[in-house]
Amino acid sequence: MAGGGYARLPDGSVVVALSLTAPPGGAAPPDTRVRVLVHAVNRQRALTRLRNLGLRAVYLRGNTEPPTPDEITAVLHHPDGMVWQPAVHDDTESWHPIARLVRAGAGPSGG
Predict the structure, then answer these.
(1) What is the pTM of this model?
(2) Residue 45 confidence (pLDDT)
(3) pLDDT tens digit sequence for 85-96
(4) Is 2 strand, coil or helix?
(5) HEC per residue, 9-42
(6) 71: part of which helix (H) or strand (E)?
(7) What is the CA radius of gyration of the chain?
(8) Which carries the bigger pLDDT value, residue 102 or residue 98?
(9) How far apart are CA 14 and CA 88, in angstroms?
(10) Which residues contact 14 (CB under 8 A, 6 or more apart)?
(11) For position 49, what pLDDT does the model report?
(12) Cα separation of 53 and 64, whole Å?
């Protein structure tokens, strides 16, 4: 079961944080836990954004692991509003664009 949570921002939008198993073929090794952050207008839309990328079995049950202030800052400053990082990481590792997680084997992305 994925752990996660959300934080409502002053403008009414939300940041959803989920701990998931990395999908096969991505930048993270298989069966690795990753922390995914999504900024959206509401929780349902955040989950829909992830499902549209191929992460079909994504659900948010409760608010046990809400995003930290540092995580909120990271996702708000990313142009796509979706980032990930290995769940067990060092403090020097930065957040990665979500495209690296779900489409790393598909070839170079435009950036």
Answers:
(1) 0.83
(2) 95
(3) 988 877 777 888
(4) coil
(5) CCCCCEEEEEEEECCCCCCCCCCCEEEEEEEECC
(6) helix 69-76
(7) 13
(8) 98
(9) 24
(10) 6, 7, 8, 39, 40, 41, 42, 43, 46
(11) 92
(12) 24
